[in-house]
Inverse folding.
């Protein structure tokens, strides 16, 4: 457990060593604020739901760019040969990197809190929805992180990792969306609906904390972390 | 201390290490010598538990790499080929990170890092980012990282690769000093390095261990016989006839002839079957009243041994 924190601390700091982190955060904040606020005064309602509604799609591109370097860079530079000959377990490294990227996501989301505050100053939003919305963002974001982290372990090349992460995330998102469900025979609809990343986000976005949704996200995170640990410990690449 | 038992490693269909077995005793400094792609790095990667072997096992200080990889890793300090480092971290942060992951307790950590910085002479570049350092300093950071937890065993993969001649001497000196108390395996394809730092040599070629012993043993074994370079002035036929009669003279051949005032200087290469026969040759020359200007016992160089063994 101690090692997980040591690694997380180093990886988290590493994010801020490069200008990329700042560029991403800025881009994300600009995008999120713009998307919500450009129609805000026209609509004239303290509806916080549409603020969260875009997150699944923004995350789908943003999160892979946060995770793409985590394993791919180490593979390319050969630093895994030092890291994995230390007396620590592969799973500690995986969890450490995951924790670091999660904290980074947390920082980014925390910085968006200006929007609910603005809405709160001008109107009376449903604060329950705000809390649930952020919870959903965290869970959804963490799922994307687990997927992206796993994808990063599959290649030396950060761009490949990025694309793979988007592909897997997109697949898992689309599976629950209406335009896909239309093409599926009726008996399977509830199954695929449940498997979709976006479905559970919407239900959380309504302000209801349903344990089914939480279990779903924790399962997705669990599965991809497990796959990640496996990829590292049973690697055939050097 | 380290016992490698029938180690075999395939990368897919390619055989990288073929049933290699050897032992390293405590306190030895052993050199892995071999051409590129011989299997040296792969062997080291298995010993350090970075890779799992296809077959065979390694015992390190009583711990098996399959059953107790964490214990094995605890006792080894490893400097991989190409010395991978994190360029964006600064030297102290990096050593601190490794020290922490090496489970060096907090109170002791700073003290130990200071010690290691002293040993590897990194004092001047402490607060620089690793990416800004010269190759020589980077190599020292790699060494520092390998030694920070004071391991009993050190494994260095081509520790002087890419360094300039001065830096090479410094690193070798450092390794020699560390070697006094630790068990070290280092790999190289620079032969003088082996003679300079190692007490024993393992020659690996084409995935197999083909020779093992001290430098002297290997030279003797490869050379087989002692060879003399002799340059004598005298009538050729007579010289040859007389030589054949000398005890212990084996095959010999003329490798050069230089005309002189009263005859020809004959350069001869004489193989001895009975050790050092220089005195016998000298006495022969005196007896026959020839002239002698070269009488040298040729020792096969390690380069020649290596070439002989790896190009067979």
């Amino acid at each position: 457990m101690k090692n997980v924190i040591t690694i997380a601390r180093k990886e988290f700091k590493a994010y801020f060593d490069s200008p990329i982190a700042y560029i991403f955060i800025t881009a994300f904040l600009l995008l999120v604020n713009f998307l919500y606020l450009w129609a805000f005064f026209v609509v004239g309602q303290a509806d916080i739901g549409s603020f969260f509604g875009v997150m699944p799609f923004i995350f789908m591109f943003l999160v892979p760019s946060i995770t793409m370097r985590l394993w791919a860079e180490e593979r390319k530079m050969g630093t895994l040969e030092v890291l994995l000959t230390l007396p620590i377990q592969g799973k500690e490294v995986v969890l450490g990197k995951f924790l670091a990227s999660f904290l980074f996501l947390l920082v980014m989301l925390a910085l968006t809190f200006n929007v609910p505050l603005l809405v709160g100053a001008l109107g009376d939003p449903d604060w329950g929805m705000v809390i649930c919305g952020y919870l959903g963002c965290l869970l959804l974001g963490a799922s994307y992180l687990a997927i992206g982290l796993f994808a990063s372990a599959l290649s030396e090349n950060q761009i490949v990792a990025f694309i793979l992460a988007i592909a897997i995330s997109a697949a898992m998102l689309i599976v629950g969306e209406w335009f896909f469900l239309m093409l599926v025979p009726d008996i399977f609809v509830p199954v695929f609906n449940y498997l979709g990343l976006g479905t559970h986000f919407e239900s959380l976005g309504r302000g209801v904390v349903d344990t089914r949704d939480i279990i779903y996200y924790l399962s997705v995170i669990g599965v991809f972390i497990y796959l990640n640990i496996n990829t590292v410990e049973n690697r055939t690449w050097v | 201390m380290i016992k490698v038992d029938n180690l075999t490693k395939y990368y897919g269909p390619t055989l990288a290490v073929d049933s290699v077995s050897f032992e390293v005793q405590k306190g030895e400094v052993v050199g892995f010598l071999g051409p590129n792609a011989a299997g040296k790095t792969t062997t080291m990667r298995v010993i350090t538990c970075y890779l799992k072997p296809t077959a065979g096992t390694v015992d390190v200080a009583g711990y098996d790499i399959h059953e107790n990889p964490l214990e094995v890793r605890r006792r080894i300090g490893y400097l991989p080929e190409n010395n991978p480092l994190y360029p964006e971290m600064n030297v102290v942060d990096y050593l601190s990170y490794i020290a922490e992951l090496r489970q060096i307790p907090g109170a002791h950590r700073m003290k130990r890092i200071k010690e290691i910085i002293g040993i590897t002479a990194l004092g001047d570049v402490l607060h620089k980012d690793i990416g800004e350092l010269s190759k020589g300093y980077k190599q020292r950071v790699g060494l520092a990282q390998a030694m920070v937890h004071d391991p009993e065993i050190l494994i260095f993969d081509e520790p002087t690769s890419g360094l300039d001649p001065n830096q090479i001497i410094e690193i070798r000196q450092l390794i020699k000093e560390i070697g006094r108390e630790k068990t070290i395996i280092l790999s190289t394809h620079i032969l003088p390095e082996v003679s300079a730092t190692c007490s024993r040599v393992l020659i690996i070629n084409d995935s197999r261990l083909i020779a093992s012993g001290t430098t002297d043993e290997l030279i003797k074994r490869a050379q087989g016989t002692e060879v003399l370079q002799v340059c004598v002035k005298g009538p050729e036929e007579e010289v040859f006839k007389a030589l054949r009669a000398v005890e212990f003279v084996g095959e010999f051949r003329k490798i050069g002839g230089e005309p002189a005032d009263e005859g020809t200087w004959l350069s001869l290469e004489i193989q001895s079957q009975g050790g050092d026969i220089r005195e016998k040759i000298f006495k022969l020359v005196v007896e026959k009243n020839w002239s002698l200007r070269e009488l040298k016992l040729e020792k096969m160089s390690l380069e020649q041994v290596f070439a002989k063994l790896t190009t067979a």
